[in-house]
Amino acid sequence: MPELPEVETVRRGLAPIMEGATVERLELRRPDLRFPFPDQFAEFLEGQQVVSVGRRAKYLLVDISNGQVVIMHLGMSGSFRIEEDAIGDTTPGVFHHEKTRLAAHDHVTFHLRQQSGRIARVIYNDPRRFGFMLMCKRSELVDHPTFKNMGVEPVGNALTPDVLAQALLKKGAPLKSALLDQRVIAGLGNIYVCEALWRSKLSPKRKAGTLVKASGKPTDRLVTLEKHIRDVIADAIKAGGSSLRDHAQTDGSLGYFQHSFAAYDREGAPCRHEGCGKSISRIVQSGRSTFYCSSCQR
DNA sequence: CCGACTACCTGCCCGC
DNA sequence: TGCGGGCAGGTAGTCG
Fold first, then answer.
1. Number of domains, chain A
2. What is the mean pLDDT of residues A59-64?
3. I want to staple A293 with a disulfide (CB 3.0 to 4.6 A). Which of A15, A42, A156, A271 is the partner?
């Protein structure tokens, strides 16, 4: 499921449940996902309090009271769901834990006690196991190999036409591939790159560097692209992300941005640009599907 | 250094 | 109905 808007939606679901809660127990049902879980993962977390649930690009960052950060990536098929026990068991010393109803591919459970005394479980499910969980000291996070060369966020003030121009300068790669590169902009994935290029009427096949002037300044078309990248990400976050293949949010509800796709997964369907009349094509670039209108995207 | 390709893993959908 | 092939939102490692 997860590009930046989906991960942000997950973050917003987890934060009110996890922040301030104590991890009573971490339950791992296998030794690894894509990578082995960190050494002493459970020992580091159990008894600690969750300080905050943040996000960088497509990564969730859970700050822990002992100064560690849990780094979580959902891969292609990772999701979280929350189970909260009914109120009424908050008497000190009374530990009434309801039983988790496990599903296939439930790999991790965070057993939490909230400050109210309420019991909650945060359960990570990931059929393909492309997701992973890492841990490091908060003070070392920016130097962590995962984040060291990461590009700017497309939300907030970091992304500007000038920043994008610098990142694309002299790049010979197709624009589509360049925008998927997390060192350029961090958090874009296949869906939102296709959508941003369609909105900008830019060809995914165009060499990325052609949007930068010799002076290193952005062309007008790059200014437009930068705006559409910000817009499509903001629109998707507002919609609660995209729910493909029945992917649900932490509360089980579905995002609805997939109903707003103009290009992604619309092969053969009519292009929605005013007066175009052509249909959306599917091509493969760097081994990934690109959906675009070969008539109006130039 | 850059860009293209492959592996990783399960599930689903389609055509035969 | 069953089976094989292709495809899926991701990253990381390899190779030319």
1. 2
2. 98
3. A271
**What is the Cα–Cα distance from A254 to A189, expressed in whole angstroms?**
19
Residue A220 lies inside a defined structural domain of this protein: yes
Q: Which nucleotides of C are covered by protein (CB under 7 A)?
A: 7-12
Write out residues whose CB is closer than 7 A to strand B: A 34, 77, 104-105, 127-130, 171-174, 177-178, 208, 245, 286-287
- Tell me which residues of A are annotated as active site: 2-3, 58, 288
Q: Which domain holds residue A120?
A: 4-148
**pLDDT > 70? residue A93:** no
Q: What is the mean pLDDT of chain A?
A: 94
The Å distance, CA of A62 to C1' of C16, is: 40
Indicate if A82 and A186 belong to the same structural domain. no
Q: Is the CB of A123 under 7 A from strand C?
A: no
Could you give the percent of chain A with pLDDT greater than 90? 90
In a domain, A184, yes or no: yes
In a domain, A297, yes or no: no
Q: Residue A155: which of A297, A7, A2 has the closest Cα?
A: A7
Of the candidates A86, A118, A148, which is a domain's last residue?
A148
